[in-house]
């Protein structure tokens, strides 16, 4: 068989880089550049370069498995489907919950959303966006009317000033970092705020090191300085925003003076003043953030603060400006767009809205109706319900997620999952979560199917099948359709291809309404909103007005008082622990730890400790120590560095052998229900010899 190239989209981060998979003898053997994508122009970061290595891992699941007497035994698809159908039919809709996936295609997420709401008739559907950018969706939908990145990746290069807070862009979204570097080359200033002097911080013109969890105070101080100096954009505020007086009333309070916020955050007053001036007066400032902003009990407040700052200075709706949440996973934007959230159908059409509910109910044609027009549980609330209200939730269907490593306070997660009466996991590897399942179904990875995904800049791009799946593994949407058919709903899932599903999505989703496979097959694909077949897509949102969802299409400014994190250091746990990722790994490591080249770069986890703290504690670089919080403890090697703030420690969360999420706090933001991964109180000790 001849060697061929198959153009597809990277399966790792939300940047959405295109690449070619090199296929020889029917197997993917490598990655080659695809030059025509406007996103990455042939360039890839290390994860993209080695995105082929896990595909044919010998650990791939190849046959359905059913747990009998505590052990998995191989089963036929029919046996597995019969058991799943019989068990799922035995529960009431409210006793069932579904987790969709930011890893799989839009078509597959749509299929499981329709399955949850139409077949199971449950309102409890969510996915891991809850853990990364649920605060962005909630915060920006409330202020701008749309919970997504306002500008495009290429547009960042047009900025005159880029303010990055809570995002290690150069390592976690390297090809977005390229746009930042281009802007700097053209003379833009880069302001970087983070507790760690990361690779991104090292490129900054102004680096502000701060205590994790003090973001709102920082934004309020910058806004006070801007108003005091008359740098606010009065015309923009007057014409495009509401509630300015309320915002002003809050930020002008003495507690947000530069000197006071220096005490709260640790950022010198002069740096805050400089940041405020550069951001407000550049003419085109772009604000980039990621999970350093969102993963807090004040995550929604933090996001609204980014929106406040941008509106106050008129940095919205023009090239080089915007509020840009950098989404984590390859298709986390798409999974949200596809309605895999407990409150919306596709395109953020509310489940509680009578007209939207009727629209989906009529279009799907389930003879016995669909879920009630009610909001369901978020994944974090599903877990709390399992632990705190025994018997309320009984069955769960998980597609391509691993809460047993990704969620906060893992002992609590394990306790919750053990309370399930019936668990189905559909995945490509035997994950920590799959180990707990009653039935495991072998699914396909990105290289084995057709479909599309939506990147952080709302660009809807194609996956293309490059090889057959291993063993009996099947495409996720096909598995869902076959389970639905077993449960009596073959007609509603009678798709013949991913394209059939995409056509159903576009017919029900106004923001995708003008898209088709023919249109998104082009190298530049399309960015939503794209409401009509002749619409070119939308690289910049809110150019003339905010979204129609906002009253009078105006942006909502919000007064936001500063609150400390749920857990702050004390005598027993005197340090702040924050978590994040490594350049070479991806989330729970399922794919990257099975990629030899990536795993050999960073084979295990670590805890970063400031040099002065390490000296006081008598801890040496590379020494194995024990890290403890109120929720558990892990043994982990110390990485002693000057690059982290004194009093703050950092762990990546990819590594099961030193799982950071045993330590993290599952206290939730009251609106988005995101856990506070980015700040809890920790102590570290030397390991005592036995
Ligand atoms: Fe893949 Fe993201 Fe790297 Fe691009 S920047 S190659 S999308 S991991």
UniProtKB/TrEMBL annotation:
<dbReference type="InterPro" id="IPR006963">
    <property type="entry name" value="Mopterin_OxRdtase_4Fe-4S_dom"/>
</dbReference>
<dbReference type="InterPro" id="IPR009010">
    <property type="entry name" value="Asp_de-COase-like_dom_sf"/>
</dbReference>
<dbReference type="InterPro" id="IPR050123">
    <property type="entry name" value="Prok_molybdopt-oxidoreductase"/>
</dbReference>
<dbReference type="GO" id="GO:0046872">
    <property type="term" value="F:metal ion binding"/>
</dbReference>
<dbReference type="GO" id="GO:0051539">
    <property type="term" value="F:4 iron, 4 sulfur cluster binding"/>
</dbReference>
<keyword id="KW-0408">Iron</keyword>
<keyword id="KW-0004">4Fe-4S</keyword>
<dbReference type="Pfam" id="PF00384">
    <property type="entry name" value="Molybdopterin"/>
</dbReference>
<dbReference type="GO" id="GO:0003954">
    <property type="term" value="F:NADH dehydrogenase activity"/>
</dbReference>
<feature type="domain" description="4Fe-4S Mo/W bis-MGD-type">
    <location>
        <begin position="3"/>
        <end position="59"/>
    </location>
</feature>
<dbReference type="InterPro" id="IPR041925">
    <property type="entry name" value="CT_Formate-Dh_H"/>
</dbReference>
<dbReference type="InterPro" id="IPR006655">
    <property type="entry name" value="Mopterin_OxRdtase_prok_CS"/>
</dbReference>
<dbReference type="GO" id="GO:0022904">
    <property type="term" value="P:respiratory electron transport chain"/>
</dbReference>
<keyword id="KW-0411">Iron-sulfur</keyword>
<dbReference type="InterPro" id="IPR006657">
    <property type="entry name" value="MoPterin_dinucl-bd_dom"/>
</dbReference>
<dbReference type="InterPro" id="IPR006656">
    <property type="entry name" value="Mopterin_OxRdtase"/>
</dbReference>
<dbReference type="GO" id="GO:0016020">
    <property type="term" value="C:membrane"/>
</dbReference>
<keyword id="KW-0560">Oxidoreductase</keyword>
<comment type="similarity">
    <text>Belongs to the prokaryotic molybdopterin-containing oxidoreductase family.</text>
</comment>
<dbReference type="Pfam" id="PF04879">
    <property type="entry name" value="Molybdop_Fe4S4"/>
</dbReference>
<dbReference type="InterPro" id="IPR027467">
    <property type="entry name" value="MopterinOxRdtase_cofactor_BS"/>
</dbReference>
<dbReference type="GO" id="GO:0008863">
    <property type="term" value="F:formate dehydrogenase (NAD+) activity"/>
</dbReference>
<keyword id="KW-0500">Molybdenum</keyword>
<dbReference type="GO" id="GO:0043546">
    <property type="term" value="F:molybdopterin cofactor binding"/>
</dbReference>
<dbReference type="InterPro" id="IPR006478">
    <property type="entry name" value="Formate_DH_asu"/>
</dbReference>
<dbReference type="Pfam" id="PF01568">
    <property type="entry name" value="Molydop_binding"/>
</dbReference>
<protein>
    <submittedName>
        <fullName>Formate dehydrogenase</fullName>
    </submittedName>
</protein>
<keyword id="KW-0479">Metal-binding</keyword>
<dbReference type="GO" id="GO:0015942">
    <property type="term" value="P:formate metabolic process"/>
</dbReference>
<dbReference type="InterPro" id="IPR041924">
    <property type="entry name" value="Formate_Dh-H_N"/>
</dbReference>
